[in-house]
Design a protein that fits this description.
Layout lengths: L2 H16 L4 H4 L15 E8 L6 H20 L7 E8 L4 H13 L5 E4 L3 H14 L3 E3 L14 E3 L4 H14 L4 E7 L2 H13 L6 E8 L7 H8 L6 E4 L5 H11 L6 E3 L6 H7 L7 E4 L15 H15 L5 H20 L4 H9 L2 E4 L4 E3 L14 E6 L2 E4 L2
Helix pairs in contact: 1-11, 3-12, 4-5, 6-7, 9-10, 12-13
């Protein structure tokens, strides 16, 4: 697809979004002159992402998404004649580097706001920096601890790990499967989701009969899975985790001849998981954003135009497969744009207040309705339950 065609797709996406209750949110109308050290005619937006390293499958599409839409907006004349200047640092998945770059964005780059934090670990490391500096920060990471308890300057766009547990347990309950085994990664996301599953399982009448863990560098989980296979009464497996670990778990499950239903998390919601797991992924279920099944959504679904438009423009520009992780960046960028547009000021407190007032914003992850007590704004209906069939995502419901 040509650059002109890509621009047209982006324009259609923005036009479709204007038909929603968030027309002002998606209008190309940011107030100009943000960022204390910005040049005239320049709006500075900072980002710290894990574009390389073990979480690159998350951070790379996030970086590409931010660059794609900043470029298209600038090509269309910018924002009130001003251009967006993205200042992006790659932390490689290292929390210490993330905190260092966060400090640089505040002290040297004088950004108006920050989008990013690819992983829960890097996000949590940066939160104190932006809270102390009183700069709005919208994270792309999944842990519920990012927004609970509520932090004045911090928001997020992905569904939480607690919601993932609830969506999985909801489906297990429908199938009368009450005894599960958990095998979780020891990374920040895996541990957090495991903890959330343990907190909410009783609400759905689910008993966790056995648990195992694996490290981020482990290349074989057959020993842990063998233990789970022998757990008394076990009826299903749940794998909180991200990165390559869940794909290895999936392959090992099939290699051991385990036929129990296997549930993964939204931490693997990209086609790369299916590619890594191969045929073993068949039948795996997971909660994920509507973006992965954009073409299969009914025309009546309010997310279809947004999700399909983003998918089309992203894949045309990058020649790669869309993932929900890039969608988190898309949602965050446009939520910020809407807030800046309404604030009409470079005052950080006013920008923060307008992010918090986001209502009816239709994004790739769902329909966002934020409040002073909810800095994510999504409920469980925003999650779709998917199953891998014939090497692709399909809707279970």
């Amino acid at each position: 697809m040509t650059a002109r065609a890509t621009t047209t797709v982006t324009a259609r996406l923005l036009a479709a979004a204007r038909l929603t209750a968030t027309a002002s949110t998606l209008a190309l109308g940011l107030a100009a002159g943000f960022g204390g050290a910005a040049q005239a005619g320049e709006i500075r937006i900072g980002s710290v992402l894990s574009a390389t390293g073990p979480a690159a499958f998350l951070g790379d599409p996030e970086e590409k998404t931010l660059k794609l839409y900043a470029e298209e907006i600038n090509k269309a004349g910018g924002i009130n004649g001003d251009t967006i200047k993205l200042i992006i640092y790659d932390d490689g998945g290292d929390a210490d580097k993330a905190r260092t770059f966060a400090t640089r964005l505040v002290e040297e780059d004088k950004v108006a706001a920050v989008l990013g934090g690819t992983t829960s670990g890097t996000t949590m490391a940066m939160i104190p920096v932006f809270e102390d500096a009183e700069i709005p920060f919208v994270s792309f990471a999944g842990a519920v601890g990012i927004v609970e308890p509520t932090k004045k300057w911090v928001f997020k766009t992905p569904h939480t790990d607690r919601m993932a547990c609830e969506k999985i347990f909801e489906d297990l309950k429908k199938q009368n499967l009450a005894k599960v085994g958990i095998i979780s990664g020891t990374d920040g996301f895996g541990k957090s989701m495991r903890d959330q599953c343990v907190k909410v399982n009783a609400k759905y009448g689910i008993e966790i009969v056995a648990e195992e863990t694996y490290g981020p560098r482990d290349s074989d989980m057959t020993a842990q899975l063998t233990n789970l296979k022998g757990a008394p009464g076990i009826q299903a497996l749940v794998n909180p985790g991200m990165g390559q670990g869940p794909a290895i778990v999936t392959r090992n499950v099939r290699q051991l001849g385990i036929t129990l239903p296997l549930y993964q998390s939204h931490g693997v919601a990209s086609k790369s998981f299916i590619e890594l797991a191969g045929d073993a992924a068949e039948g795996v279920r997971l909660p994920a954003a509507a973006l992965l099944v954009a073409e299969k959504l009914p025309d009546s679904d309010p997310q279809k135009a947004i999700a399909l438009g983003y998918k089309t423009s992203y894949e045309a520009a990058t020649k790669g497969q869309v993932s929900t992780f890039g969608g988190h960046a898309f949602d965050a960028l446009f939520i910020l744009k809407g807030a800046l547009d309404r604030a009409k000021s470079s005052d950080a407190a006013r920008i923060r207040d307008e992010i918090e007032k986001t209502q009816g914003f239709i994004g790739t992850a769902g329909i966002f309705n934020m409040t002073p007590d909810d800095h994510m704004g999504l409920d469980l209906t925003a999650f779709k339950l998917l199953e891998v069939r014939s090497g692709d995502w399909t809707l279970v419901e």
